[in-house]
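Inputs:
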Amino acid sequence: MSILQGQYTHNLPQIAYCAQEVKLHEEQAALNSGTTLRELMQRAGLALFELIRNKAVKNILIFTGKGNNAGDGFVLAKRCLQAEINVTVCALFEPTLLKGDAAEAYQLFCRSGGKVVALRSCAEKSYDTVVDAVFGTGFRGELPCHVKEAFAHFNTSKAWKLAVDIPSGINGTTAEVAEGTFHADTTLTFIALKQGMLTGGAPSYSGEVLLADLGIADAFGDLSHTNCCYPGGKYLRSLRPHRAPDSYKNKCGHVLLIGGGKGMAGAIRLAAEACLRTGAGLVSVATHPENQQAVLQGRYELMVHGISVVAELEALLAKVDVVVIGPGLGQDAWARKLFNAAKKFEGPVVCDADGINLLAQSHLPWLRAILTPHLGEAKRLLDDSSIDTAKRFELAEMLSKQYAACIVLKGPGSLIVDGKRTNINRSGSEAMASAGMGDVLSGIIAGLLAQGLNRFEAATLGVYIHGLAAEQAARDGQLGLLASDLFVHIRGIMG
Ligand SMILES: NC(=O)C1=CN([C@@H]2O[C@H](COP(=O)(O)OP(=O)(O)OC[C@H]3O[C@@H](n4cnc5c(N)ncnc54)[C@H](O)[C@@H]3O)[C@@H](O)[C@H]2O)[C@@H](O)CC1
Ligand SMILES: [K+]
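Outputs:
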């Protein structure tokens, strides 16, 4: 449903678009809604004004550029003047470069008594609010040096930093983040969510994202196309498997986790316990014979098998519904034999860590697999160390295509890509920096597969549960957070 013009919302939609798609359809969407681009700019400026008024802003600096993003800034500036808010506009590009509606917004600002100033004179003063109206959806490539300098001066200041539509420096389509990008506390985005703001390095520059659809959401939705979703917690929780009262362990799936080479018992144990906590009925572990006791210790629900010869693993593979391969596996001859046996398994598989490294050496597709690479593993899978990992959507799509797999590209706003479908994870900190976090994620996803979710749903819900559990566990601070701290929270989230 479309919100009223001028208003903004904290309730973000579950769908995101590339910036180009927004640019392509905004004019027609405006026409179909009985309005014009000129009016949309007025509405954008009004939504910005409402936001700063709600924050009781008194002393505001607005940086402007040379496109329509600057036009929004000038509409805001004029409203601030009229409301007798102390407003300074610093034009980082000559206003003579402005065209059309933006040029008109600038002229109206000037006619209301507004003036633009040079960076030198505004850098000496302090402001409670700094607004970035330099670049919006038209931004490509790198920031010009003088823009970087202007942002650097204020990026560390205590002022509240508000980005208009998208922080200048972020590519709203690819998620690339240019050096010196505006570091917003809040971004008020217009018409629709831009996918590039939501993943990788971008979220920490976007801050809290608000949306003003400028009254054309319905018309825009009718015209536009996207494969990209930004699923909310309510929907994700609805995907959780249902446990019938007469259920028992044999009805809730049997997972076999393969990993833990000599001296590496921890990773496979973390993955296996996460799998149990997610609700898998039976959880078996195939590990190096030396690790058998260590993996079983204190978690007696696990069925732990020491594997010396491949035939022992093949016998286990014949009995299970889901396989995880990789945590702590290593890459020696023992690991390779186990990996090759696991590749013949015909059910769903989660392939992580050394499983990914071994797969990267073969380059062969793996139907039915979920691969959970971080950026380094993604490069190895594509066998291209020069690949641009900042283009996260492109990277994940390439991987999904080459391996015929579902890809979970880890990192903030993890991407889950399966063929043409993309989901962006919106749970908060994923705390992937702590040891063992990736192992816990693979165990959660396998636990969900075992209970009947398809691979795209299991990967999406798994990443969400993992992120939320990490967020809850880290509430008192990230340092010292252990992967095993997630277990009790996983249990709570699974309900
Ligand atoms: N009337 C409209 O079309 C509306 C536009 N809106 C605003 O307009 C914005 C999009 O406007 P534009 O398409 O004019 O784009 P921008 O305002 O992002 O500016 C594009 C300009 O910046 C230049 N540029 C891009 N990358 C650069 C770089 N790396 N270094 C130097 N210059 C660079 C481009 O050549 C172009 O001149 C949206 O983000 C939104 O804020 C909203 O006001 C809603 C209505
Ligand atoms: K901006």
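Remarks. The chain has two domains: 16-228, 234-494. The chain is about 40% helix and 15% strand.
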